[in-house]
Each structure stands twice: as structure tokens, then as C-alpha cells.
Predict the structure of HAD superfamily hydrolase.
Amino acid sequence: MPKLTQILLDCDNTLVLSEELAFEACADIANEILAKRHITDRYTGEQLIQDFVGQNFRGMMISLQAKYKFEMPQEEFEHYVKEEENQVIAKLQAKAQPCIGVNEELEKIHREGKYRMAVVSSSALRRVQASIKKVGQDKFFDPTHVFSAASSLPKPTSKPDPAIYLFAMDKLGVKAEECVAVEDSKSGALSAIRAGIPVIAYVGSYHGDQKRAEMAKQLSDLGAKVVMKDWTEFQSCLAQIETA
């Protein structure tokens, strides 16, 4: 097996505790869209997380249209995409925190220089950049090694589509077997697995032992190679993949 040289990291709830903040803003906008169409259902951020975790806003709005059987004109769609991005970024800049223990691990990897690191996210590039900057992680990543399924691709998409991982590997000049991905959601793990990349499933951002155990099982069943409950386990998870 070729040597692992590249660590590809999801952003939301893998590097930065951003999902709850982002989904609060998403829920406000989703409810405005539904109200405009006289649809009486309303979402909380938590309900959106349950229904759409791992998808970016574009993906969510496509799913929402399918669920409620309406079509949004492209102009309106793009307006809400931009509006959501602005609102989420404002929340992240005010309140975002790093995932527990991740900054110490990034520091270690960065210092040792054995692996290169890149961010591979579904979220809009501005949002990813704002997130990692707020929590002091931007110094660990070359700005050209931060990839977004919503912004970096010729045609925007969302995980579980593997397009963003394929694009990132192409830009980084690496093959799937030289990489490992760290993902916390089903759609994220599937995106990497479909691109042929071994996955470390990170479940440390889920609340409660039961939810963490449930997600560990789900992500393992999808094909994640190893489960990481805490960032302090990263080196041993990496070693398991390297010796597999």
C-alpha cells in the first residue's frame, strides 16, 4: 500500500463546532421559505440537523423542495443561498468554538510535518474560512488547500457526492490510497468512501453516549475503517489505517 501522506479533514463538527449555530440560521431561512408558500410546517435547528446533517444549504433546499413538492425559481434560490451564508458566518464569527482537543492535534501534525493537511467541506468557502479563522486553525492550512463542494467546484454540489474529494485529490496531486479522511456524518463519510478514501469516523461532537454509539455503528456500517471518539485518539486511529 502506498504511504499515507495526506489528511483530508471535514470542517463542520469535525474541526469546528459549527453545526448547531449554522442550523439555527438555516432554520430561520427554511421557515421563511415555507411561510412564503403557505406551508404551515416549521423547523427548529435541531430538526434540520436530524433531517439534513452533512448536507450543505443547497442540498437542504433541494431536499426541502422535494419533501414539500414545490419549485423555487433559480434567482430566489441563489438569493437564499447568499442570505444563509451571511447569517451563518455572522453567528460563527460571534460564537464558534473548536472541537474538543482538535487544535492540539493539528498543532502536533503541523509541527511534525509528516503529513500534509487539507480541509474538504460541503459548506460554502467563505463559511469554512470564517470558521477555521475564528478558532485559530487557519494557520495549519495553506489557503489553496481549503476545498468547498458549494464553492470550489465548476458545478456546486454537496456530500455524499464524491466530487469534492475527487477535486481535492486532483488539486493536491495525490491518489486515494495516499489519503485518509476524517468525517463525522453519513453524507461526509459516504462522499470520501465513494472517492475510494479510507475514513476515520469522528463521533466526539455528538451529544451523549447513546448518540455517539449509534453514529459509530452507522458510520462503521457504511465502511468507515475506524471510529474516533476523541481527538486524543487520532494518532492511534491513523496507525490502525496505516498498518491495515
